[in-house]
Amino acid sequence: MRKSFFREIKQNWLMMGIPEEVFDNFLELHQRSFSPVPKGYILPEQVIKSLLSVSVPLEPMEQLANMANWASTILIGKISKNNYKYPWYWLDKNLAQDLSFTDPPESIPKEITLPSLGLILLPKNLIKTSTGNINFILYHLFKPGEKIDFKLFTVNKHTFSTGYSNFSNTTPQDQYRLVWFSAESHSHIYGGNIELIFQEEELKVFQEVFQPLVDQKTELSESNRILSLLLNCLIYSDSLNTEIIETEKITIKKGFGKNSNKNVYSRPLWIGKGYQPVSRQPSGFQGTHASPTPHWRRGHWKRVAFGENRSQRKRTWIKPTLVGLSQKK
Fold first, then answer.
1. Judgement on whether residues 197 and 289 belong to the same structural domain of the protein
2. 201 pLDDT above the threshold of 90
3. How many separate domains does the chain show?
């Protein structure tokens, strides 16, 4: 991790009156070193820079009435309080494209394969918004009755005074909550708070609490695209044939001799590494009538009966397909 990358940010924090230890503690908690660094994704330090941009909320508290700000504050606060080194995952490019063309599920498993708190890095240019690109999603699945109680360093919007503020929230006893957020490179935030109801051994997506920052129609549409991809990632990772690659630590020696430095890195965690995409060529049947324009038929998740008396259910992914008429031979 290049320390010079954050030098200017640190100086800006200090000028705002934020103690140096607040910055150093945040950086120590979130920084990661990977080898090799995956290509086609933003660099780890760019992710941390985005997290830094939302790690000091504005006071007064009504600023958190916006759901994106609320979600980012809750997640950053929970990580900071528990000093939790949450895992990072890279979503395979081919898999990301197919999941982005798949309708989201109506429910997710009660116990997901991915950790309840994690960060998913997306291929560049996968999700383009009206103001930039979405490059990562930070999420946490809160369980019923889970209490959120922490304090964060804040800056008062009106007086620019600084200090610690307490935040407290409790998940209802009859609900799970999926809280997520993402920040673009220039700090525009997307986020959500999804209510999940336990039904038939699954968590049914019941309602999303959403308040826009500026443009409700545009932001709601873009927020739904990000949420759909997150839900599809959680479902895919829970499938029997998931390819979540486990991490391992590696040591890289710099220099020669007894005094040479050794840096410890982590190999990147992958969701769907080596995934084989669906055909990108038009498929269909041959006929005599006018050929329709080739187009994508969106994928979806289907509950399939199996077992004795077909009493059990398993989820199957019907992948997106490019359909149209094949040319005559």
1. no
2. no
3. 2
Asked whether the beta carbons of 204 and 107 are under 8 A apart, the reply is: yes
> Is the residue at 304 inside a domain?
yes
Q: Is the peptide bond before 36 cis (omega within 30 degrees of 0)?
A: yes
Return the pLDDT at 178: 93
pLDDT per position as a tens digit, 93-120: 999 999 999 999 999 988 888 889 999 9
Q: Which H or E element spans position 244?
A: strand 244-245
Q: Do 187 and 46 lie in a common domain?
A: yes
DSSP annotation of 223: H
Q: For residue 82, what are the contacts with CB-CB under 8 A and spacing of at least 6?
A: none
Residue range 23-37: mean pLDDT, rounded: 83
Count how many residues are written for the chain.
Answer: 329
CB burial of 287-316 (b: ≥16 within 10 Å; e: otherwise) equals eeeeeeeeeeeebebeeeeeeeeeeeeebe
Q: Which structural domain, as residue segments, surrounds residue 291?
A: 278-329
